[in-house]
Amino acid sequence: MNKNAIEGKVVFLTGAGSGIGRATALKLSKLGARLALSDLNIESCRETAKQCAGGPHQVTLLNVAEYKRCIDTVKDAIGYFGRIDHVFNCAGINPTARDLVDCSEDYFDKLVAVNLKGVYNVTKATIPYLRSGSAIVNVSSICGVHPHKQMAIYCATKYAIIGFSKSMALELGPKGIRVNVVAPGYIETPTNASVMAGEEALKKTVEQVAIGRMGKAGEIADVVAFLMGDESRYMNGSVVEVNGGTG
């Protein structure tokens, strides 16, 4: 990674309080980026900022499902930094494996509001401030590429992210703004369903991965940084699967 491609850039980053969001914030800060960090858990977001190198960095409480709040948060970031160069839409809700008949309307609404509408909200709010050379990276999932039983609603949101991102790549590409997607596989984060389910569930998950282990959040962060850098300058509308070899 060419540090100069990220150094001094301002990145608007959601879901920064933990997992892939925090790992990406740490990665980008080491490369010299200035970060507008947001999360629904403000204390976790502040902890991320403390761990980041460089700065200044901004920390904001944000529920990405609330459009007006997204507009206001983006305006606050512009007021703080003067610009936004890149966007990382990482905020999301992990799934709970359950048959569709056992899924409530509230569960459906919550996943769609955060995982899908949240990306729409932040993307729409930031577009007026982006310029040629900017990059948007959205987080889909292995569940947005391959169907999984008992995860129909989550899969629907993550498949939708890919369609949305590819359409935005066509819309924004002529302006010099690239939109790409990272699709993580089984990543070792505190909210991962296999991790929370215990050792036996974790073992079954690992058996599905050719490399033979769960991924690390930092390994996704490396790809996000690449997608924002000059080395990926001809990538637009791409979906990068980072899953250790998972069928």
From TrEMBL:
Single Gene Ontology MF annotation: oxidoreductase activity, acting on the CH-OH group of donors, NAD or NADP as acceptor
UniProt-listed Gene3D superfamilies: NAD(P)-binding Rossmann-like Domain
Keywords annotated in UniProt: NADP, Oxidoreductase
UniProt GO BP: fatty acid biosynthetic process
Family listed: Belongs to the short-chain dehydrogenases/reductases (SDR) family.
Name of protein: NAD(P)-binding protein
Organism encoding this protein: Aureobasidium subglaciale (strain EXF-2481) (Aureobasidium pullulans var. subglaciale)
